[in-house]
Write a structure and sequence with these properties.
Chitinase A, domain 3, 159 residues, two-stranded parallel ribbon, alpha/beta, 7 strands, 2 domains, five-stranded mixed sheet, 3 helices, single chain, Helix Hairpins
């Protein structure tokens, strides 16, 4: 992973910190216990439980390392940095589909905190890229996997 700046909201920074804490303590202990139990089954060279536990440990350590790198490279946005005159990270944006009239409310976040199921839209996603820097009232065209779509930016507020 590169040393690319990771832009986070204070909420996103807190969530990543809590995840690292959980993985580094509770989850590491659980995996360590599984490895210990698997060793007790005998010869580790033919022990699938041991191999599985060691693979889980490797994935866990990789995840912890990735999260720690994100925090090291994080820039946490302060409330004062979040402007509402144009769409930016930390803004809550009300979009209206030009064709269907459907409304969507997204909070624009950095890619490290993107969570579309919870309406947290990455600034690097197709819609995120299209609306960044745009103002309320503008209509943006977005290339999506299902074709082109047009959205009107109805309003911009602090997220």
């Amino acid at each position: 992973m590169s040393d690319k700046e990771v832009i986070l909201t204070s909420e996103g920074y807190q969530r990543l910190s809590e995840e690292i804490e959980y993985l580094s303590t509770i989850k590491r202990e659980e995996v360590s216990e599984r490895i210990k139990e698997a060793r007790e089954f005998g010869d580790i060279s033919e022990n699938s439980e041991y191999n599985e536990a060691k693979n889980e440990q490797a994935k866990l350590e990789m995840r912890i390392g990735t999260l720690e790198m994100k925090l090291r490279n994080a820039r946490v946005l302060s409330g004062a940095e979040i402007k509402t005159d144009a769409v930016g990270i930390g803004c809550k944006v009300h979009l209206k589909d030009d064709k269907t009239g459907d409304s969507f409310h997204y909070i624009v976040v950095g890619s490290a905190e993107a969570d579309p199921a919870n309406m947290k839209l990455s600034n690097e996603s197709p819609v995120g890229k299209a609306i960044m820097g745009r103002k309320a009232g503008e209509i943006v065209k977005v290339a999506t996997p299902r074709g082109s779509a047009k959205y009107k930016i109805v309003s911009i507020k602090k997220g």
